Amino acid sequence: VQLQASGGGLVQAGGSLRLSCAVSGRTRGLAMGWFRQAPGTEREFVASISWSGGTADYADSVKGRFTISTDNAKNTMYLQMDNLKFEDTAVYYCVGRIGGWGKMIWDEYDYWGQGTQVTVSS
């Protein structure tokens, strides 16, 4: 399984961005997620979802503003980010694992994509 993240960029506070994560290889049984890391901080969990899309979980800091989803036909996972704040500025990584969704620890995932930079100007 290979993951390719894209969609980052520069946006003003209050604006929106949609990140994409293209998945090459198997998707059956995958659980997917997003993490982020700002300069000088620890990598943190953002959101997770089962590939079937039935259930999702979010960090408290993004709940109500971010939406994670999957598109089986396109083998792609998305992170819709609305009402962006300066503190959302970070490199965002997509991750995947075989097994249950909802894991919030980086090392519990089996596959990791390269990061995509999101910068929110205040």
Largest sheet: 7 strands, mixed
Query: What is the molecular shape?
Result: globular
Helix percent band = under 10%
Q: Calculate Rg over CA atoms.
A: 13 Å
Distance between the termini: 37 Å
Low-confidence stretches: none
Total of DSSP H or I helical runs spanning 4+ residues = 0
Which band does the percent of strand residues land in? over 45%
Mean pLDDT: 94
Sketch the topology as an H/E string, one letter per element.
Answer: EEEEEEEEEEE
**Secondary-structure content class:** mainly beta
Tally of strands: 11
Give a quick precis of the structure:
This protein has 122 residues and is mainly beta. Helix content is 0%, strand content 52%.
Descriptive report:
This protein is globular. The chain is built from no helices and eleven strands. It is mainly beta. The N and C termini lie far apart (37 Å).
Descriptive terms for the model:
four-stranded antiparallel β-sheet, single chain, globular, 122 residues, mainly beta, seven-stranded mixed β-sheet
Task: Show the helix and strand layout.
Elements: E1 2-6, E2 9-12, E3 17-24, E4 30-37, E5 44-50, E6 56-58, E7 66-71, E8 76-81, E9 90-98, E10 111-112, E11 116-121
